[in-house]
Every structure is written in structure tokens, then in C-alpha cells.
Known about the structure:
mainly alpha; flat
Amino acid sequence: MLALPLQVIDNFLLQYNVGQALLAIFILSALAALPLKSQRVYAMQFLGFGLLFLLTPQSMLAKPHWKFLGIALLVLAPMVYITAKR
């Protein structure tokens, strides 16, 4: 009984790679932090997801442009943190 829903979920998830899943989680976490209105929270998210994109093995990401997104997020994180108001 439990195998059928798991097969449906598995077939759905096989269409996507880890980079796409990380990007979806990043967008959802940015939307979740919107009510806080804190640039420092966004900076921490940029830093965390930048590290995730860089440290994820290339074989799981499927394309190298996810690594460039990680580098961009790591460059952007300190700038957003410094420009945040106290």
C-alpha cells in the first residue's frame, strides 16, 4: 500500500537534480524570511546557500553553473551584511 505513493514521488523527483532542489529551497527560505525584513538574515541565507552550492559535488549538480551561483552568493553575502542597518 505504501509503495505506490513513494513511486509517484520518486518519479516526480527524478526529473530534477540537486541544484534545482537547492534553488527551490533557497527561494522558499527567502520568502519565509520576508516578514522579518532583515538584511542580515538574507546575508546569512546567501552565505549558507553559497557554501551549499560550492560544497555539493559536481556529479550531483549536473551542470557547472550551480557552482557559479554559489560563488555569486558568497560574494553578495558580505555586501548585504555590511549594508544592513543596525
